[in-house]
Write a structure and sequence with these properties.
The complex is a heterodimer of chains A (728) and B (116). By secondary structure, chain A is α+β, with helices and mostly antiparallel strands. Chain A contains 19 helices and 35 strands. In chain A, strand 30 (628-632) and strand 31 (635-639) form a beta hairpin. Chain A starts with 7 loop residues before the first helix and ends with a strand. Chain B is built from three helices and six strands; from the N terminus they run E-E-H-E-E-H-E-H-E. In chain B, strands 1, 2, 3, 4, 5 and 6 form a six-stranded mixed beta sheet that branches. In chain B, helix 1 (27-39) links the parallel strand 2 (13-22) and strand 3. Classes of the chains: A alpha+beta (728), B alpha/beta (116). At the A-B interface, strand 32 of A face helix 2 and helix 3 of B.
């Protein structure tokens, strides 16, 4: 935004200028302030006698009006003045329109000659239905404002009628225009907020219409200047004849405007914009009836603004809401893998709202989509934007230190995903250098003799605004927050927190690398569940005091945090039991007692083998686990002896041991159910495939393990653990 | 096959017929049906796995839990799983679930009951 170089003090003085109580009116009518109900004249404009054709000093309205006129006046006073039509009266023989309002306990009467006012070709009331229909037909804002500009101009006969819209900083933009063909278009021009000071905007929000038929007028003072009894000047906020600020007149003169009118556009109580009418060829005064009609159009358009702005925004809102629902549904389908649902699907988080890039950080992992700053910058930018409120359309202007990401991320919308782990969703919009055409260089306001002098230059002046992106709209921010809220509540509470903890737990369960054991060759493969959830698998190698090696492969039922914590306990308990060196059967019996006592309702299976690397003697015990495969000499068999019940099934159980010999070249394969479980393949077939692959696969234990995993092609819903061993 | 647990009667005893894949995702349905049945402390309850096409360790664990809960409720539990349903029966056999709960080929009368 340009910073108009205006003397702050002079601007403040301008803001203090008493525009509501100028103590004067414009000369195209007369003003009398009278008491109620006596109607005695208290204040009169200096031109009253001239306009009325009779001197009202010391009179009452009863002296000025006929009994019939007086009756109509009293009737109007008894009703709502804002709804009152102008009264036609002729106190001194001249036909006048009388407009009523109230101020400071007085009735303000404004008398304006009918003669000399411009009258629209056709009577307003005949055209009203057509005009209203035209006004309510457009569904877009552009359509509505275009109709409004055209109809107001047709009605009032000004040279140019513009619809002027305020932005959030009160700069104005001409969004619609109807003009005399020879005039230069102003459509699309911007005007700085300083052109219409806050005080004037407050007045515009309170009254619907202002008229300056002759911008070169000489103000007519009110007499007396202070209302007797109150000692205050008369408040003319609601008076049509109110004399305007000399600064405003100077502003109009600088623009070449000789007559002006404006109608407020008020959207739900807030000044939205103006219908601004300019005349360039001398005085121009539409009739009171036509002005009322123009005001009526403005009021009607004000009511429609809400619905038409809404209609245009609604399209975007509906689309965003739809995509939000689809993404939420996608998350619901795969609650264990929310990141995949947001990043990998046909519809990604980037499609939620118009943006060039998006970032998803879930469970500490960052996924980038589209055009974004590099990952490490995203990790810096997003938290900074979150701290600054979550959305910016001017990152580099708002926050220091991010100039390097302006291209991709001048606009950043970030929402936190609950849990305080620093997870987030973010969208990025690129810098869009905008050409803003100002109606004149806004920096040309001058301060002369300490008084603000309005701009003199109104020649089109184009400024390139840098560092900004297309603003984030309310419904977009809302949708982003809703999606993040959904993620936080529905998914992370259930799966993310679980998985994060259980993944950490399980990392302690799986060996980072297989230890080197003299005389033994080992191979292992662990593949986590594709569902991104931690299963209950574990394996372990425990060198025993006797010099033998215990190899364990187990699987606790269930998934997630509970299974992982059960698994951790089982693993440590089994280690302890094995280190007593009483053999696999005794260790499993001990473990089973422990599960029954300490983990009621849990169930696990495990197979334990104990190998003497020197002799090849091998003892095996299984607690409900899938049979190990013993291969050698081109054959293999499932080890079906040495079995006992699954751990936790019985309070006390014995586990007999199978005794076999692992000869040189033999291999033994242990595995979890994830390897063989497939919905589309009965378990017996899976077991037979494992057996056959072990029988035929060449190479050492690792090669056999890999061959088995390749051949079985596990479903991926569960984690898969395979351990192979051989003697060397 | 869509997973379902049907409440039927076998020889006058309440029975839960488990159809489809009994796994970590569906096991909660069986658990809640079992809880409802056992809350009435019936003399007997049958869990029929004849039409169960798949059972993972979570499903097996639920059978074990059901057996314990039934014992606590004084309910005689019987699991029906014919040998012809090899994929499920093999899991039961490997885990030796029969040591906890009777697993039979088809629903049978239990002691002291009169068939209808």
């Amino acid at each position: 935004m340009p910073q108009p170089t205006i003397d702050e003090e002079a601007l403040a003085r301008c803001a203090e200028e008493p525009i509501a109580v100028p103590g004067a009116i414009q000369p195209h009518g007369a003003l009398l302030a009278v008491t109620e109900p006596g109607l005695a004249v208290v204040v009169a404009s200096a031109n009253a006698a001239e306009v009325l054709g009779t001197d009202p000093t010391g009179a009452t309205l009863a002296d000025l009006l006929t009994p019939a006129e007086l009756d109509r006046l009293r009737a109007a006073l008894a009703a709502d003045l804002a709804e009152a039509e102008p009264l036609r009266v002729a106190p001194g023989g001249t036909e006048l329109e009388l407009v009523l309002s109230r101020s400071g306990g007085l009735l303000v009467t404004e008398w304006e000659p009918v003669a000399g006012a411009g009258q629209a070709a056709a009577a307003w009331h005949r055209r009203l239905p057509t005009v209203l229909q035209r006004l309510s037909a457009p569904t877009t804002l552009e359509g509505l404002t275009a109709v409004l500009a055209r109809e107001v101009r047709a009605l009032t006969g000004f040279d140019r009628v513009m619809v002027y819209r305020f932005d959030t900083e009160w700069n104005g933009e001409v969004v619609a225009e109807d003009r005399r063909p020879d005039l230069e278009p102003f459509l699309g021009l911007h005007y700085p907020a300083a052109d219409i000071p806050a005080q004037a905007r407050a007045l515009y929000a309170a009254s619907w219409m202002r008229l300056i038929p002759d911008a070169t007028y000489t103000p007519v003072p009110l007499e007396p200047p202070l209302v007797p009894g109150t000692g205050r000047p008369l408040d003319l906020s609601g008076a049509m004849l109110r004399s305007v600020s000399p600064v405003h007149l100077e502003y109009l003169a600088n623009m070449g405007v000789t007559a002006s009118m404006s109608v407020s556009l008020i959207d739900r109580g807030r000044l939205w914009g103006l219908v601004a009418c300019h005349g360039y060829s001398g005085a121009h005064r539409p009739s009171a009836a036509d002005r009322t009609a123009a005001e009526f159009l403005g009021r009607t358009a004000s009511l429609l603004l809400h619905t038409t702005v809404g209609a245009a925004e609604r399209d975007g809102m509906v689309a965003v809401a739809q995509r939000e629902a689809e993404l939420v549904a996608a998350i619901g389908r795969t609650p264990r893998t929310p990141a995949a649902a947001l990043v990998d699907g046909d519809l990604t988080v980037l499609d939620l709202l118009p943006a060039a890039g998006a970032a998803v950080r879930l469970d500490g992992r960052l996924h980038l989509l589209g055009s974004t700053p590099p990952a490490e910058r995203v990790a810096a930018v997003v938290p900074a934007v979150l701290r600054a409120g979550g959305a910016t359309d001017r990152l580099t202007l708002a926050l220091p230190g991010f100039d390097d990401v302006a291209d991709d991320a001048s606009g950043v919308l970030a929402v936190e995903v609950g849990g305080g782990r620093g997870d987030f969703l973010a969208w990025f919009r690129p810098e869009t250098p905008r050409e803003v055409s100002w109606g004149g260089d806004p920096r040309t306001s001058k301060v002369t003799d300490g008084r603000l002098s309005p701009r003199r230059s109104f020649a089109r002046w184009t400024e390139t605004v840098r560092g900004t992106a297309r603003p984030w709209r309310e419904h977009e921010v809302g949708a982003a927050r809703a999606l993040a809220g959904h993620l936080g509540a529905a998914v992370l509470a259930r799966a993310g927190e679980d998985d994060r903890l259980s993944a950490a737990l399980q990392r302690t369960l799986l060996l980072e690398e297989l230890p080197a054991v003299p005389g033994v060759a080992l191979g292992a493969r662990y593949r986590p569940s594709e569902a991104d959830v931690v299963g209950g698998d574990w394996y372990d190698l425990v060198p025993l005091p006797s010099g033998r090696l215990a190899v364990v492969l187990g699987d606790a039922a269930g998934h997630g945090l509970t299974a992982a914590s059960v698994t951790a306990q089982l693993r440590h308990a089994l280690r302890a039991a094995l280190l007593r060196d009483e053999g696999p059967g005794a260790a499993l019996a001990e473990l089973n007692r422990l599960v029954a006592a300490l983990l009621p309702g849990e169930m696990a299976t495990a197979v334990v083998v104990q190998l003497d690397p020197v002799t090849g003697e091998l003892a095996l015990a299984s607690a409900g686990h899938l049979p190990a495969v013993h291969g050698g000499d081109g054959t293999a068999r499932l080890v079906t002896d040495g079995r006992g019940p699954a751990l936790g099934l019985l309070d006390v159980a014995d586990y007999p041991q199978a005794e076999l010999r692992l000869d040189a070249g033999d291999r033994l394969l242990l595995y979890s159910d994830g390897l063989v479980e497939r919905r589309d393949r009965p378990l017996p077939e899976g077991l037979e495939t494992v057996r056959a692959v072990v029988a035929g696969a060449p190479g050492g234990p690792q090669e056999v393990v890999d061959a088995v995993v390749d051949a079985l092609d596990p479903a991926g819903a569960d984690d898969v653990t395979v351990v192979g061993l051989a003697r060397v | 096959m869509q997973f379902a647990v049907d409440r039927v009667a076998v020889h006058g005893r309440p029975a839960l017929r488990v159809r489809g894949e009994l796994d970590i995702a569906t096991v909660v349905q069986l658990a809640s049906c079992v809880a409802v049945e056992l809350s009435a402390s019936p003399r007997a309850l049958v869990v029929d796995l004849t039409e169960t096409t798949f059972m993972d360790s979570s499903g097996a664990r639920q059978l074990a839990r059901t057996a314990r809960d039934a014992a606590a409720a004084g309910t005689a539990l019987q699991v029906v799983c014919p040998r012809s349903n090899a994929p499920v029966r093999l899991v039961i056999d490997l885990l030796e679930l029969e040591r906890l709960v009777p697993v039979v080929e088809s629903a049978t009368l239990s002691d002291g009951e009169v068939g209808s």
